[in-house]
Structures are given as C-alpha cells and as structure tokens.
Specification:
87 residues, alpha+beta
Length: 87
C-alpha cells in the first residue's frame, strides 16, 4: 500500500526520516501502513542513537538523506523546514 501511495504521490519521505502525507490524508489502510512503518523507524532510530551516541532525530535525518538520494524520479520528499518536492 505504501509503495503504491509513494508512486502515486500521496505519500513521501520527510527530512526527519519518517513518511508523511503529501496531499492531506489517505485511506485507512495506507494510513495504518504509514503509521506502522513510522513506528518501526522510530525504534530503529532510537536503537541507532543508543549505539552511536547521536540523537534519534539525527539518526532519522541521516537516514532521510540516504532515502532522498535513492528514491526514484516522480516520488516526493520534504526537506527539513521545506515544502514537498517532486524528484
């Protein structure tokens, strides 16, 4: 569900390392999937922070930079403090 939502432009990657809704909200299945992925990412960022001595926020931001670089053309990303941009 999330891959399709990313491809259609309704969900994108944010600069904090979490998924966000580009156009308001989505159907309940997509919303639940985004929330589940973000919950998993939050745990990973906390674990990474504990191992490396950085904050969970810094771990998320570092991950976002990698995700931005790897995402296919046509998908959306939102830099910290910025607006949604179509790659």
């Amino acid at each position: 569900a999330v891959d399709a939502a990313k491809a259609s432009g309704s969900v994108g990657e944010q600069g904090d390392g979490f998924l966000g809704f580009v156009r308001g909200s989505a159907d309940s299945a997509t919303t639940a999937a985004v929330e589940a992925i973000n919950a998993g990412r939050k745990q990973v960022y906390a674990s990474t922070a504990a191992k490396t001595g950085v904050s969970p926020e810094a771990a998320g931001e570092a991950t976002a930079k990698v995700l931005f670089a790897k995402m296919p053309a046509g998908q959306y990303y939102k830099p910290l403090g910025g607006s949604w941009i179509k790659k």
